[in-house]
Amino acid sequence: MDHQTIKTSDNATKREGQQITMIRYQEIAPRRPLQRYLKCLWLLEREYTSGATEEILWPDGYVELLIHFGDNYVRAVDRSSPRLACSFVVGPLTRPVRLHSPGRVCVIGARFWPWGFFSFLHMPMHELRDQLVPLSDLIGRRAHLLEERCSALAVEEAVQVLQDELLSCLETSFIEPDRQVLGVSRQLLAGVEITSMKDITSQSGLSLRQLERRFHTWVGVTPKKLSTIRRFDEARQAIIFSPTLDLTYLANLLGYYDHSHFSNDFKTHLGLTPTAFKAWFSDQQASSPEKDVVFLQARPDLL
Fold first, then answer.
1. Looking at per-residue confidence, does 244 or 50 come out higher?
2. For residue 7, how many C-alpha atoms fall within 13 Å in the half-sphere facing its CB?
3. Looking at the domain 4-173, which fold is it?
4. Where does residue 77 rank: exposed (0-12), middle (13-18), buried (19+ CB within 10 A)?
5. Which CATH homologous superfamily contains domain 179-298?
6. Span(s) in the chain for CATH 1.10.10.60
7. How far apart are CA 21 and CA 46, in angstroms?
8. Which Pfam families would you find in this protein's record (predicted)?
């Protein structure tokens, strides 16, 4: 087989004020040549018949390439904003981004490791930080051709076409990942906390200024910021998968100075405090016993 499914979720449910007729999310392991650069490929099919249609993207350290076949997203800051392109790149996020879709959502995507996207397009990643950029702005007419090819296929086949395109990019414009950036990033994603930047720089053999400059190019954020984002995302996942976990205990477990530090850091990255997010998620679970494993989460209207 060319691919391996690594996570799936299918759910159809009805919630108060909102009927979701279908949710399907699936992650697919990339082919071997892409595994150094991509965490996974994924597909999402989701349909609303009424009610809230906002989604939220949160920082997690990864870069996403999305191709959308449903009702195009609008950045939810202003509903009068132009619709987003059918294919776009979500750069490295440091704050939440809210999107709106009026109905059917059908998306395929590629989730790049923090260092992975630069190898394909050679664009300094700090220029994409907190940006949603049309793919056509990055690769021109090839983006529209890719959209046309994918839209004519079943969604699973479209994912494989996207893999083919990425493999082609590797063959024609590949840049070997920076070893120091790769090594430090892998440590941070593995949960190694930065107690002192001297520890990181001594292992990399670079000065702090040199390492941060390379991170700005390859990752889009500093090593310290990537560590902060990883810790936030670990906290978010802990709340989802262990909703009864005491938040003070969780803050201590993850090395936050105190609960206030934990709460402020969490709200910076998600727009909600841990307490508010936990309450919202508990409400979602009560109205839908099955867990919806999705990349885009319906935004809780708590702020």
1. 244
2. 13
3. Jelly Rolls (2.60.120)
4. exposed
5. Homeodomain-like (1.10.10.60)
6. 179-298
7. 8
8. DUF6597, HTH_18
Q: Which two tokens stand for residue 120?
A: 């394909």
Radius of gyration of the chain (CA): 19
CB atoms within 10 A of CB 190: 8
Structure tokens that stand for 102 in this block:
């009026």
pLDDT in tens, 18-37: 444 567 889 999 999 999 99
pLDDT at position 17 is 42
Q: What is the pTM of this model?
A: 0.85
* Token pair 């935004």 in the structure block, residue: 299
Q: For residues 6 and 60, give the distance between their C-alpha atoms in angstroms, rounded to a whole number.
A: 19
Distances (CA, A) of 260 to 1, 232, 299: 49, 14, 23
Alpha-carbon distance of 173 to 169, in angstroms, equals: 6
Cβ atoms of 280 and 54 within 8 Å: the answer is: no
What is the pLDDT at residue 22? 64
pLDDT of residue 18: 44
